Amino acid sequence: MGKRILAICCTPYQLLVAAQVLACYYPGEEADLILSDQMSGARKLWEQAQDVWPYGQVYYLEERRLNRLAHKENAKNILLGAVAPEKLLERFLHLEGSYDVFLFSNISLMNQYLILALKRRNPRLQWLLFEDGATTYSEQVGGLVQSTSPKVRVQLHQVQKLQGMYLFHPETLDWKPGCPVHKLPQAYAPATLELLNRLFRYDKLGDRYDFPVVFFEESYPCDGVDIGDVALLDRVAKLVGKENVLVKTHPRNQVNRFALAGYRTNQDTSVPWELVALNHSFAGTVFLTVGSSAATHPWCVLGIPAKAVFLWELVEEPSKLRWDVLEQTKRLCQANPELFFCPKTWEECESLLSRLVVEQAAPGAAMAY
After folding, report:
1. Model pTM?
2. In angstroms, what CA-CA distances link 330 with 19, 140, 301?
3. SS3 of residue 126 by DSSP
4. Which of 147, 166, 178, 226 has a CA between 20 and 30 Å from the CA of residue 136?
5. Which H or E run contains 127?
């Protein structure tokens, strides 16, 4: 008898990675899927997945209400999770039967409750973490997994006992987990790509990405932090032309600041960027960002060469940046100097962009100056 798998995804990228984990490490196994409402467009994706997901059931989880609970209610849930985890889980989700393997990406209270409840049904449950981009490789996640803080351990003690990890680049981890680390292949099998395209209805995607420059926004605004990225792009646009720039907005940001500033932006935030990269050639495009690891993903996650320029050295208030996460991206830039560039001055940036945009332009193509 085969294993029964449960995977939870809180972002479109996590679903893309989970599909690769299942295809490569659990082929042919029954696998149910949880889509959390923390994901942009989760309910629509859940509806679409009902007729597409081939491995088992698809559940919709209203997780955001857990994150909005008052401190007193959280404390009650933590206590209930310790003594009656299945009863607690029923408040959020009704799952059928027991599972042998639980796959997740977020170090969160919800996953703590899921592990506790699933262990009650099957004491031999295994729980393994799959990557969620640069954050997983950083001390930000490692610090939580290995924290000895009483507060963290009370809330996440089961999540901390990882029994395995799935990563595209295990060799670049900033921390040392106390569990086996399994490498994910960068190449996606045609059947896996077809499944993902059907899940996200990629054939209905109306966004165009064939621009000389694609700028990646980050999630700082949803945390109330202004890193001055609009002003930075305005300066770049004077060089390359605003009409030659597409802004890939971050799905967590509620306000489209770049559209308000007159930039063309993507409209669909539910399709993971990496799925776009799997389906589209960016041979004629330069990626631009302050520090988004998404600009490195075509190469680092999928093995597709794509050139990117990072502007973190040009931010006026660098103390606002998430340097613990950026350290991972900085090392990727140092290891791939032919693909990733980090200008230290505006003069260097302007010279670099002028050269790269011309080099990347397709033969015979002209920029719309």
Report:
1. 0.85
2. 28, 15, 16
3. strand
4. 226
5. strand 126-130
At 196, phi and psi to the nearest 5? -65, -40
What's phi and psi for 235, nearest 5 deg?
-70, -40
Give pLDDT tens digits for 94-143. 998 999 999 999 999 889 989 999 999 999 999 999 999 888 998 889 99
Regions of the chain where pLDDT drops below 70 = 1, 67-70, 362-369
Measured CA to CA, the distance from residue 94 to residue 12 in angstroms comes to 23
The one-letter amino acid at 244: N
**What DSSP assignment string belongs to 135-193?**
HHHSHHHHHHHT---HHHHHHHTTTTS---EEES-GGG-SS--SS-EEEPPSSPPHHHH
Q: Give which of 161, 156, 146 is closest to 109, Cα–Cα.
A: 156
Of 306, 280, 288, give the one whose Cα is nearest residue 242: 288
DSSP state string for 67-120:
HT--HHHHHHHHHHHHH-HHHHHHTT----S--SEEEE---SHHHHHHHHHHHH
| Tokens at 183, concatenated | 């490498």
On whether the CB atoms of residues 200 and 12 are closer than 8 A, the answer is yes
- The alpha carbon torsion through 244, 249, 254, 256 (nearest 10 deg) reads 0
CA distances from 295 to 105, 173, 299, 338 (A): 20, 19, 9, 14
The string of pLDDT tens digits covering residues 3-57 is 999 999 999 999 999 999 999 999 999 999 999 998 878 999 999 999 999 999 9
